[in-house]
Amino acid sequence: MDETVGPSEMIVHLGPQHPMMPGPFRLNAKLRGETVVDSEVEIGWIHKGIEKILENKTYLQGITIVDRICYLAALTNEEAYVGCVEKLAGIEVPERAQYIRVIMEELSRIQSHLLGMGEYASFLGFVSMFMYTIRDREDVMSLIDSVTGARITHSFLRYGGVKDDLPEGFKDDVKYVFGNLRKAIDNYEELYRTDDIYKARTANIGVLTADVAKDLGVSGPPLRATGVDFDIRKDEPYLVYDDLDFNVCTQTDGDVFARIQVRLDEMRESMYIIEQCLDQIPDGPLFPEDTPYGKRSPVMRIPGGEVFHRVEDPRGEMGFYMVSDGSDRPYRVKIRGPVYPTLQALPPLLKGVKVADIVSIAGSMDTCTSEVDR
Amino acid sequence: MDANSIIASLAGKFPDDIYDADVQSEIRIAANVKPENVVEICRYLKEDLSFGHLCCEFGVDYPDRNEIEVIYVIGSYEHPVILTMKALLPRDDPEIESVVPVYWNANWYERETYELFGVKYLNHPDLKPLVLPKEMLGEWPLRRDYEGFPNKTARNLV
């Protein structure tokens, strides 16, 4: 951004600490009157150097580290990391473990969307909505907790399987929670559709068209809200997504309202996926038989090679590129987070909007600075 | 469009620049590319082979070979194939043309590769540090022989 200001222009810094932001990043906006003429995003306040740390940790220790990339998507981060190693070492995951992974990752998608949506409503001043979604999210968190033993940083996936089996009575718990959650999501949708103030602040605001969104490299709900059905679960199926029946939720408007609607629909779709999984899940071992995986702390040496594995994160396309040189720790890991291009696309999106809409547009992207900075 | 025809089309169009092309599976292809012509190749990929989605761009350091690899992982919205394209640069003076004119979102990836590996991107619109403080420029922390980890980096935080 050009730092020189003309007559009746000024530069306003939003952040790095700002109520709108789920993590510290700074938005420098150049204003002419009430209108944004140019803007720039600065990041790096919580750069953790996870890519460097992973080079210095063994493969098993790495699982714990990738949890910390973004606590809302810890399970999908693990899936991307573990999937890389499984592809390199040629480990086959037993079917039961695959189903458990799908269940957990979809649960984590639901809780991430619930938080993202509630937080977004609170950015607009609709704080009661935040309280509603946090209340319902807690039930989902308890479900995850009952399986993994942790609320946000799970370290649940292992090479070739998962740490634990589903607990007794899990199916009934899910049934109970989903009954309430379905009603709650219908409620949210009705609130959103009937609230005039909410509509005025979201409809036709921050419109992305499909071509522009593709050009900017945006993925996940912001892209699907423009009508592009790009979803890794369908386009490059991993785990057992091939055998499951689900739709890719899309909208055509591409505005803020559509992005929230996509998230609402995706939560319903996730619940449908989980119910299918619980009906179809076969009995069997959690780790491939006659292998050391699943025994206590094996020292793993992974065959040399390079692999790119991507999964569908709650926010979009999560990919890991791993280079292995045959030792017990990765040679290089590149984390391609979904929010990184989304946050980068803010300045073109904010050009020409009013100051009051900055929060509405930036919040609707469901950014996670922890993941951008890594 | 399947993996074999993509490789054939690419190697046919740029016979001098693409080498070691390899079909790893139905949805993964890899190729090495000469650094001089990388923008032209990216433009061809995007416009003619519908590789419209740059997944990521990053560096890998190989001190024993005295090389830095810049890797482009390019996907598509129309077909499931992902191309991994590598450009090999000398470690003492890594320089490569920026692909921002073709892939807009390469901007941040290139700024990050610059500050972490020291790869200089020519004709980049705004090549400055992204995630690191300005004082750390020149240390290239993600190179394999970086010695500041973890002591130096931890001290910076205090």
Question: Would you give an account of this structure?
Answer:
The complex is a heterodimer of chains A (374) and B (158). With 374 residues, chain A is an alpha+beta fold. Chain A has a domain of 255 residues: Cytochrome-c3 Hydrogenase, chain B, CATH 1.10.645.10. Chain A is 48% helix and 13% strand. In chain A, helix 2 packs antiparallel against helix 3 and helix 3 packs antiparallel against helix 4. The longest helix of chain A is centred in the first third of the chain and has 29 residues. Chain A is globular. Chain A starts with 8 loop residues before the first strand and ends with a helix. The mean pLDDT of chain A is 87. Chain B is an alpha/beta fold. Chain B has one domain: Beta Polymerase, domain 2. Chain B is 26% helix and 30% strand. Chain B is built from 4 helices and 7 strands, in the order H-E-E-H-E-E-E-E-H-E-H. In chain B, strands 1-2-5-4-3 form a 5-stranded mixed beta sheet, with helices on one face. In chain B, strands 6-7 form a two-stranded parallel sheet. The longest helix of chain B has 12 residues. Chain B is globular and about 50 Å long. Classes of the chains: A alpha+beta (374), B alpha/beta (158). At the A-B interface, helix 8, strand 6, strand 7, strand 8 and helix 12 of A face strand 3 of B.
CATH superfamily of the domain at 48-205 and 277-373 in chain A: Cytochrome-c3 Hydrogenase, chain B
Low-pLDDT segments of chain A: none
- Molecular shape of chain B: globular
Fold-level CATH name of chain B = Beta Polymerase, domain 2
Q: What is the overall number of helices of chain A?
A: 15
Q: Please indicate the percent range of residues of chain B in DSSP E strands (runs of 2 or more).
A: 25-35%
Largest interface: A-B, 31 and 33 residues
Mean pLDDT of chain B: 85
The beta-strand count of chain A equals 8
Please give the largest β-sheet of chain B: 5 strands, mixed
Percent helix of chain B? 25-40%
What structural class should be given to the helix and strand makeup of chain B? Answer: alpha/beta
Structure annotation, total helices of chain B = 4
Beginning-to-end CA distance, first to last residue of chain A = 24 Å
Instruction: Give the CATH topology of the domain at 48-205 and 277-373 in chain A.
Output: Cytochrome-c3 Hydrogenase, chain B
Oligomer: heterodimer
